[in-house]
Specification:
The protein has about 80 residues and is mostly helical. About 90% of the residues lie in helices and about 0% in strands. It has one domain.
């Protein structure tokens, strides 16, 4: 959740910079927003990979709990990466 809040803060700061003509604030906000988006994307991709592996292990071993956890992690990764 912290990354989404940082994105929002950056977006607000970028907008305030545009409105006031403060290019430094605008650039700082844009950077903050883009860094938060990047972190969120990386976390989402990692959860998707982790979930895919867990699901595969669950299928190979017949462990429904591990398979279900893998699917849940993949879903979590999808939602993290959604813009």
């Amino acid at each position: 959740m912290g990354d989404r809040i940082d994105e929002l803060k950056g977006n607000i700061k970028e907008g305030a910079g545009k409105v006031t003509g403060n290019t430094e604030m605008e650039a700082e906000g844009r950077g903050q927003k883009e860094m938060a988006q990047g972190r969120r994307e990386v976390k989402g991709a990692a959860n998707q990979v982790k979930g895919s592996i867990e699901e595969g292990v669950g299928q190979l071993t017949g462990d429904d709990s591990t398979r279900a956890q893998g699917q849940a992690d993949q879903f979590k990764g999808d939602s993290q990466r959604a813009g």
